[in-house]
Amino acid sequence: MPTMLLVTHGTDGDVLPFVRLGGELRAGGHEVTLITHAHYGPHAARAGLGFVPIDTATEFERTLADTHDLLDGLGWREFYERNGLYRQMELEFTAMAARYRAGETVLVGRHTSALSVLFAAEALGAPAAWVAVAPIQIMAERAALHAYRTLLDDGIGGVRRRLGLRPIEDWDAWFSSADLHIGLWPAWFDRAGTQSPGKVRLTGFPLPDENAEEALPPEAEEALSGPVAPVLVTGGTGRMLHRRFYDAAVEGARKAGRPVMLVVRHRDLVPDPLPPDMTWFPRLPFRAVMPRVAAVVHHGGIGTLSRALRAGVPQIILAHGVDRPDNAARLHRHHLAAWLPAPRWTPEEVAALVTSATGGDPLAAVPAGDAPGQDEGTQDGVRRAAELIAPLAVAPPDFPDEPGPAVQAARRQLERMSAAQRRAVAERLRGRLSGQEA
What we know:
Shape: globular
Strand content: 5-15%
Radius of gyration: 23 Å
CATH topology of the largest domain: Rossmann fold
Organism: Sphaerisporangium rubeum
InterPro entries: EryCIII-like_C, Glycosyltransferase_28, GlycoTrans_28_N, UDP_glucos_trans
Region (Disordered): 394-438
GO molecular function: hexosyltransferase activity; UDP-glycosyltransferase activity
Pfam family, one: EryCIII-like_C
Oligomer: single chain
């Protein structure tokens, strides 16, 4: 049975598409293991996937709390060291190496961050796919590459030495060495901004990974059934947010005369005490909630905006940092959302946009001739991605008898290691994977 090993990092918008991807690959007859944060173990179990945690739940929350300064591009070296991210690379590599079966294994990683997938592909000669969840991951390749080979080169070089890999000589070629590059967004979204290079296969937005049986809490049902439809406010599941996001979003919705449903995992980001016309929930099944709200005020995360698009609900995006301004601008060019950059985050401006969106102003009216294609708007991008990845597990009839020079070099490198060296590396890393240093 072909084996699919999936590696990803981040929050819901980065991880849940990989859970769904694993489910689709499993349905196609593949054995699938997801390697990611401990927080997502229950999601993997529900999808029937094997699971390897790269951290503990406490470590995951601590790393999330440490992400804020990264919005300004500061402190990457210290962030990696503080949060043990080099150790995570080694654990991911070990987990893949332990499950690798020659000729039957495909490695799949989150674009840009899953360096361990490229390490393992290089060492094992296994096919690899990199999957991007937002266009900015493709657009920022050069910046990420610069950071890896300058700011983080010592740490990455140390990981490679401990794994028995040689230093990277041609970073550009190595960073593009995955056999398949996938973008989880539709072509119309791609055309609305800087377009992806031809090597990227676009599949469409993923359907949400949510438990269809999850019931609405009684308080949420009451809020949604009231005389005035509420505005949903959410900044996603991470903490990498501008400090004024929730103040501006909540006060703007309230000034527009709408009750507010606030959805955020972290209690310290919630107003205390809650205003009388506001309810707070750590999480809600957005599949059931979004079609019933008057509008969504959110941060511009790719998962949130694609859910809102499917629900047909007006979006007001307060976008700051990472992929969010680019995502917001792409929707705005299609008249599918209104958005504000951080300097314009005032309750009055947010209230004006909420009032306009909930008063019949057709935010979702797309200019004729420039509308997203119907198929692109409704197809499941994850299912299409699985269809592209699955054939990597089987060499096509015209596959060359001899492997390429990169694989040959990696195999020669492994052959130079003695059996004792290989056993020592494997035992040390297995010990770390189990939480006990060898």
